[in-house]
Amino acid sequence: MRTIIIEDEDLTAEDLCSTLKRLEPNMQLSARLTSVREAITYFKTAQPVDLIFSDIQLGDGESFDIFKTIPPTAPIVFCTAYNQYMMEAFQHFGLDYILKPFSDESIHKTLEKYRLLRQTFNKTTLDLVHSVSNTHKITERTKKSLVVIHGDKIIPIQIADIALCYIEFDNVFVKTHSGKEYLINKSLEEMEHLLGDDFFRVNRQHILNRVAIAFANLGLSRKLVLNLRVNHSIKISVSKEKYHAFIQWLEG
Fold first, then answer.
1. Distance (Å, rounded) from C-alpha 199 to C-alpha 179?
2. DSSP state of 132
3. CA dist., res. 93 & res. 54, Å (int)
4. How many domains does the chain fold into?
5. Which CATH number is 23's domain given?
6. Is the peptide bond before 101 cis (omega within 30 degrees of 0)?
7. What distance in Å separates the CA atoms of residue 246 and residue 200, rounded to the nearest whole number?
8. Residues 112 and 149 placed together within one structural domain of the fold
9. Hey, what long-range contacts does 221-230 have (CB within 8 A, 24 or more apart)?
10. Residue 224's CB: how many other CB atoms inside 10 A?
11. Which of 41, 66, 130, 148 has the greatest number of C-beta atoms within 10 Å?
12. Which CATH number covers residue 187?
């Protein structure tokens, strides 16, 4: 297993490396990086790896800045002494979030989660996930399912089972036809490319599946107010600028 460690504290990096080698004898440390700038330069030309362990607070910024600049090609385990970054960590392809000081048990659980990922989804699927994260191309539409991390579970959600996607408090969620909701690590723009022609972005906050729409009411200012087949607490409307495009899409 090829691994990268992003950590600016020498003792912490050495401790993590020795722990990984003890728990995973086949582990190969491809690089140890100490700053945002160094990591960005490294990832521009780096060979693919299997797993990244990264501190969040580095001397020249937060590690999130690395992955905003260079989309990750491997799951990331964020290691930090602070718990307030958890939500943002899972928006950046985070596989796990470990609080310092870490223990053998916490690292072991993370490695087990990674093995589960590899066992559950074959290499072709993982390569597709990594490619999508790295390129953000429209080829995501070939996907039949979306992988989400929910607690300690890795869950594949069929695209057809998604009723809507929406933004709430700067986080992106998907809701299924059965009403289950999941936080995802993609932007609404990425989801718009991924979901395909059966979905329509009705406004800046919502993307809807055609079959999730029960009917529409013509409201004030010629806005369409939508009624869904799934419970959703937020009133969803279509602006008059998108009215004709929406009606055409609704007709299929």
1. 17
2. H
3. 12
4. 2
5. 3.40.50.2300
6. yes
7. 7
8. no
9. 226/202, 228/163, 228/164, 229/163, 229/177, 230/163, 230/164, 230/175, 230/176, 230/177, 230/178, 230/179
10. 21
11. 66
12. 2.40.50.1020
Q: Report how far residue 18's alpha carbon sits from residue 69's, in angstroms, rounded to the nearest whole number.
A: 29
Phi and psi based region of residue 179 (left: phi greater than 0; alpha: psi -120 to 50; beta: remaining): left
- Based on the domain organization, do 125 and 173 belong to the same domain? no
Q: Which of 101, 131, 161 is the last residue of a domain?
A: 131
Residues 125 and 192 occupy one common structural domain: no
Contact 57, 80 (CB under 8 A): yes
**Residue type for position 161:** D
Taking CA atoms, 122 is separated from 16, 63, 129, in Å, by 28, 28, 11
What whole-number distance in Å separates Cα of residue 50 and Cα of residue 77?
A: 11
Residue 4 has pLDDT above 50, yes or no: yes
Q: Cα dihedral sign for 190, 193, 195, 200? A: positive
User: Which residue range is the domain that position 237 belongs to?
Assistant: 138-250
* Domain limit, last residue, from 131, 161, 180: 131
Whether residue 124 is found in the same domain as residue 158: no
